[in-house]
Target: DNA-binding transcriptional regulator NtrC
Amino acid sequence: MTTLPTILIADDDRSIRTVLTQALGRSGYQVRTTSSAATLWRWVEDGEGDLVITDVLMPDENGLDLVPRIKRIRPELPVLVMSAQSTILTAVQSTQRGAFEYLPKPFDLGELLSIVDRALKQPALAAPVEASKAPEDNLPLIGRSGSMQEIYRVIARLTTTDLTVMITGESGSGKELVARALHDYGRRRQGPFVAINMAAIPRELIESELFGHERGAFTGATNRHIGRFEQAAGGTLFLDEIGDMPPEAQTRLLRVLQEGEFTTVGGRQPIRANARIVAATHRDLRVLIRSGQFREDLFYRLNVVPIRLPPLRERAGDIALLAQHFLGRAQAEGLPAKTLAPEAMLRLAGYRWPGNVRELENLMRRFSALVPQSVITEEIVEAELAERVSHDQAAPHAGDATPDTPQAVERAIERHVARLMGEARDKGEDGVLYDRVLAAFEEPLIRLVLGETRGNQIRAAAMLGLNRNTLRKKIREHEIGVTRRVG
Model:
């Protein structure tokens, strides 16, 4: 008779223990639960259990401290860590201390059951390593929304690898912060972090900036110049706005990624490339590929691990946390202490933030410096946002309807399609317009509908009028992360 796997659960929340016991029991597992780390440790020492699920904050011990102890005496025992703290540091420390997986609360039961099944089939054998020493009050990324939790988990998984990463997201959403987190928590954190913005460098100088040049390589090259690849040796090279890289530089970068070495401009001696590559862009590289502006082979070399950073409007639940963080940072820099009234915070959460996190940070700094009273009221926020909205509304062409009306939306779409038509006409390209228009509007449509249905793909397919398999195919094509959440 086959013995059913036993799951050991430690969490001081009775409702969590009950939900997990019922879900795991229905899936065919034996379950033992406790509210204390001490009891869990005793079970592990006695050789009980095939898998552990532990909370971080418990009355008698921090669950993160328990993980390396478990792995030392039973390295084959998979450990899943849960936490309502939900910070990037929690995710990274869970992974670095030997946890098989990290789950933020609230979690998806289907996802948890899938992880349990995978962990029991492929037990984690990695020994714990020293955790990052980054302090809790100086975290590079702030947010506890579901989308940010997934980013934390991806970063945590990448801390022991040098895989190339592609970060996509709107301007101001924090792409460089993600790149820095990948570096600061990764195994190259003792090396340099070197950033270069492709959009900020003249096209004719990009190759020299990336790879360096020899004396006399071109007019004005009076000395040897060390490029960013050499500067980043042993560390991380962040290629920001990679979509603006000119074709000739794309070709040289592809060769470096393929061969692992490069030569300086005007040089003959190959130099070994020893930097982890993290790229970022706010542009749709697939559209650029179809229009011949970006190499498809380079895209696949860079897009080994894609990370989509959501705009702030898609994670409104993080706005209060971010606003308080930026006010605290301003105070630490010597500006007067400020707090936000609850009504003011609600007004901030209702704004669309076209400038994303950077816009919110700048507004909090402005409040800290210019508002005389210590409490920022709803009226102050309303006045500031009203001025921004009126400025944004003045931008469209004369004769446009009021923003967000059907007429305004229709005209905005017409302008975008006309722009795509002009680009195709200027380049003499036929047969591409339909695909480009679809690419421009299909992805945001699917994301919005999945958000409305809380990740329920059956309901989303019904709303869209699509076959469920068709929807799944499009989700894969656009690399849309879908998580159906409970709790």
Confidence is low (pLDDT under 50) at residues 124-137, 396-405. The chain has 20 helices and 14 strands.
